[in-house]
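Query structure, 416 tokens:
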């Protein structure tokens, strides 16, 4: 809809001029908005135009319209032009490393991949409202290389393999890198790594859970950041098993998540596997249009629970009714058990002997850790795989139902 006229009694002339009916619209504009040339704002305010990944447009309750580019596999994010005027020349972003695999032979849960974002903070704890993270990415025209880390592979008999790193890279920026999650501990010794003894979780973006080796400390893997990364929290450590007497071989701890450590175990006696650490809700970043991104988790009414980066559950010892740990659910001593499924697409720990819970792989693009395996699980002696990572960009392209000014006729022209 617009105003069309054949009148020659136009208003101002020039490169940015617009014909008006007897100059009345021009007079109204100058009186009401006090901005002079009506043509300039409409011509100069253009949203960012970019390609790459899976593209979706959506609006938030405030009427802001956003475009997201979600990379579930490695690729290229190409910026053709950057936003001007009311449209920012920057994008919010998130990077999630691949999750670590659970360990074999009473295995600890795999750690989630490291998580970083300009909009959502992984740090604090599950009660932290996460108002924001790092700075938005100032865009320039050209191509950004996107790497999406793979999930940690199932093991042969030993600790879980780490997940792959994910990143946003370009020569003109400091690379944004998230470390893959650490593999869960094992009582087996293959593949052997002198830096990761039996019973010890592997370090990663979030650490893998330890397991009950017996008569020695069995720490979870630490959470580590890549060299050159800012001093921020990408995730949390895996749960520990204490130095308990005896041969061990009981419950294992959960892997660390983006918002909480993995649950520890008591060791020395049969017990339930540790829950994986709590993940993070990316719903505010990816929006309701991206329903394929993220997995179930708790959320307030009227919002979307789209969780990623939960730690994998540790293996349990079942004879007294104990089960394997549920992935992505540990938020501290008051954690609430949800028997339906793990949160954040994280893996479920297996239970020993048969008849207990069966372990599971983490879901694709969850960046969550895989479940630890027990000797009687069908997957034994291999732990369960971690979930692949994810990279997302989000930028504003307009307003839906929003009001920038009152009175007159307002029109918008956008480019895709």
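Result returned for the query:
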């Amino acid at each position: 809809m617009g105003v069309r006229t054949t009148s020659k009694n136009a208003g101002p002339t020039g490169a940015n001029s617009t014909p008006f009916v007897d100059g009345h619209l021009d007079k109204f504009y100058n009186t009401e908005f006090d901005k002079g040339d009506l043509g300039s704002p409409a011509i100069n305010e253009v949203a960012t135009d970019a390609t790459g990944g899976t593209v979706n447009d959506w609006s938030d309750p405030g009427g802001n319209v956003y475009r997201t580019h979600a990379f579930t596999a490695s690729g290229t994010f190409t910026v053709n032009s950057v936003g001007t005027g009311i449209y920012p020349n920057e994008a919010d972003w998130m990077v999630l490393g691949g999750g670590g695999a659970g360990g074999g032979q009473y295995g600890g849960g795999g750690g989630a991949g490291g998580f970083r974002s300009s909009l959502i903070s992984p740090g604090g704890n599950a009660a932290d409202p996460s108002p924001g993270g790092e700075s938005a990415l100032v865009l320039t025209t050209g191509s950004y290389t996107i790497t999406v880390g793979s999930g940690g592979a199932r093991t042969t008999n030993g600790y879980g393999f780490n997940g792959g790193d994910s990143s946003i890279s370009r020569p003109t920026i400091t690379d944004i890198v998230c470390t893959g999650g650490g593999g869960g501990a094992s009582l087996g010794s293959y593949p052997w790594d002198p830096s990761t003894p039996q019973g010890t979780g592997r370090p990663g973006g979030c650490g893998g859970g330890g397991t009950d080796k017996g008569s020695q400390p069995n720490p979870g893997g630490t959470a580590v950041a890549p060299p050159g990364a800012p001093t921020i929290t990408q995730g949390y450590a895996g749960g520990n098993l204490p130095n308990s007497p005896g041969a061990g071989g009981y419950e294992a701890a959960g892997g660390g998540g983006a918002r909480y450590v993995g649950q520890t175990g008591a060791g020395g006696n049969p017990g339930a596997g540790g829950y994986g650490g709590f993940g993070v809700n990316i719903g505010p970043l990816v929006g309701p249009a991206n329903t394929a991104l993220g997995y179930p988790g708790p959320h307030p009414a009227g919002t979307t629970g789209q969780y990623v980066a939960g730690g994998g559950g540790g293996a349990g010892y079942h004879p007294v009714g104990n089960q394997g740990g549920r992935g992505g659910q540990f938020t501290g001593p008051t954690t609430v058990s949800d028997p339906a499924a793990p949160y954040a697409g994280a893996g479920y720990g297996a239970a020993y002997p048969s008849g207990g819970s069966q372990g599971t792989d983490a879901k694709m693009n969850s960046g969550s850790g895989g479940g630890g395996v027990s000797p009687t699980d069908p997957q034994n002696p291999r732990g369960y795989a971690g979930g692949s990572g994810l990279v997302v960009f989000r930028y504003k392209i307009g307003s839906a139902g929003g009001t920038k000014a009152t009175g007159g006729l307002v029109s918008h022209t956008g480019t895709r």
